Amino acid sequence: HVSVGIIGTGVVGGDLFKQLDSTKANLIKSNKLDVKIVALTFKRDGQSYMLLSKDGITLADYQAALKDKTKGEPSDLDKFSAFVKSASGNPVLFDCTASEPVSAKYETWLRSGLNVVTPNKKVGSGPLDRYKKTKKAAADAGTDWNYEATVGAGLPIINVLRNDLLDTGDKVRKIEGIFSGTLSYIFNTFKPGVPFSSVVADAKAKGFTEPDPRDDLSGTDVARKVVILARECGLDLELSQVPVDSLVPPALQSWKPAPGENVGDAFVEQMKAFDAEKAKLIQSALDNGEVLRYVGVVDVEKKEARVTLARYPKTRTVCGGHGADNICAMSTARYQPQPLVIQGPGAGAAVTAAGIYADFLRLARRF
Question: Does an H or E element contain 102, and which?
Fold first, then answer.
């Protein structure tokens, strides 16, 4: 019996709940796993509430609570986590938020006997001291902190890196990749004659960008993923040590829209003033038979990492993506001169939720 608590039932957490709910019978049949969702948090009228039930919470229960104000109680993470732990000898918390206050509790939860599965990058890429304490808490308590979905959504990047390469004695020399679905789409679409601002507008219209496109264009999210991979490889890197080529012009980094304006639409309008300089970059690359790509690099041998907009020959591995693909190329002592390549959709609720689910199953099968 496995007791599960889901913190954050928004886009990704909601999809995870549906996937868990729809496969419960199959888990019992094929894996001998009786998984019960005994706790979850949800938003109603802008406020955070939680449902707790040792009998298990169904999709119907959750949907009813979204509308019925008599259902649930105000969220209390300490009460929530204690409840999940009391519900079985195999408790698992899913953190499907991007919240700092939630991730700040990982060390305490892991040390208390709770397992944590998450796509939240805050601890994995945050202060190195906290990262090491969180790792040690899990090791000391014999619990698991699984975070496969922090890099590449549902793509099995971290598990391949850790289990198939590092744990078998391979030496990773370099990791190079496209780690943003948004920026992958933008540079797979950006061509001479097409204004950069209109490519950003197109990505926004397709739902690839954050409400404020600067959150994607700044490169910070890619830097977080690069730090997570670097630490897996044994590099003691802080996020602040990773140089990042921001695609947001300096003049727009602290810019604010006028009251009442949609920040995304207003930002795209402001970007039009910088289309000419981006046009020069793409034309220059094309004139040399190259393409522009926004790439994260971990150079293990040099003990450094970077996030950069660079020109590459079209034949380079990181240039082989389509649409919003993520690509991760790992050059190792065994995988050379050709790297081991993992490629596929690196964004989207369904694939991210499936990545979290698969990460959970790797843990649950050991119970």
Answer: helix 100-103
C-alpha gyration radius of the chain:
22
Q: 275 exposed, middle or buried (CB, 10 Å; 0-12, 13-18, 19+)? A: middle
Provide the greatest CA pair distance for the chain. Answer: 65
What are the CA-CA distances from residue 328 to residues 41, 187, 230, 249, 341 (Å)?
33, 16, 13, 27, 6
CB 179 within 8 A of CB 326: yes
Instruction: In whole angstroms, give the CA distance from residue 92 to residue 218.
Output: 34
Query: pTM of the full predicted structure?
Result: 0.94
DSSP 163: I
pLDDT tens column, 5-19: 999 998 899 999 999
225 is catalytic: yes
Beta carbons of 274 and 196 less than 8 angstroms apart: yes
Which residue is catalytic, options 36, 122, 225, 278? 225
In tens, the pLDDT along 298-335 reads 999 999 999 999 999 999 988 988 899 999 999 999 99
- Residue type at position 275: D
For residue 165, give the DSSP letter.
Answer: I
Lowest mean pLDDT of 90-99, 206-215, 265-274, name the range: 206-215
Half-sphere exposure of 47 (CA within 13 A, CB side): 11
